[in-house]
Amino acid sequence: MSAAATVNKKIGLITTDFEVFGKVQGVYFRKHTQRRATELGLKGWVMNTAQGTVIGQLQGPQGAVEDMKVWLQKVGSPKAKIEKAAFRNELPINNCAFRTFEIRR
C-alpha cells in the first residue's frame, strides 16, 4: 500500500458491509442501529434477512466506522442477543454513496 493510501485509510472515508447473527430481529435492532449510525455521522442502510440476520452497509470516517463495528458486535439494541458480527468488503472511498442512514424493508 502506498503512503497516500495508508494516510487515506487512517483519516479518510471507508465503506464496509456487515451481517449480525443472533437474536437480532423483533428487538428493534434496525431502529437502534439507525440511531447509533446517525449519532456517529455514518451513512448507509440496514435491513432484516429471511435467514434471521441483520445486514447493512456503513460508510463514513474510519474512526466512526470502527466505533460502529464494536457497537454491532457487542451492544446492539437492549433486547438483542448478538452471537457474532461479520464484516466484508472494507475499502477506502472518496465519497459516501448515501445521504443518510436508512432502514430498508
Task: Write down how many β-strands occur, each being a DSSP E stretch of 2 or more residues.
Answer: 5
- CATH topological fold name: Alpha-Beta Plaits
Q: First CA to last CA: what distance?
A: 38 Å
Reading off the top of the CATH hierarchy, the class is best stated as Alpha Beta
Please report which band the strand proportion falls in: under 5%, 5-15%, 15-25%, 25-35%, 35-45% or over 45%.
35-45%
* Poorly predicted sequence stretches spanning 5 or more consecutive residues: 1-10
Order of helices and strands: HEHEEHEE
> What is the average per-residue confidence, as pLDDT, rounded to a whole number?
92
Which secondary-structure class do the elements indicate? alpha+beta
Domain module count: 1
Specify the CATH architecture: 2-Layer Sandwich
Count of runs of 4 or more consecutive helical residues: 3
Quick overview:
The chain has 105 residues and is of the alpha+beta class. The chain has three helices and five strands; from the N terminus they run αβαββαββ. The protein starts with a helix and ends with a strand.
Write structural notes for this entry.
The structure is a single chain. By secondary structure, the chain is of the alpha+beta class. It has one domain (3-103): Alpha-Beta Plaits (2-Layer Sandwich). It has helices at 3-11, 29-39, 62-74; strands at residues 13-23, 43-48, 54-61, 81-93, 101-103. A five-stranded mixed sheet has the order 4-1-3-2-5, covered by helices on one side. Strand 2 and strand 3 (54-61) form a beta hairpin. The longest helix is centred in the middle third of the chain and has 13 residues, at 62-74.
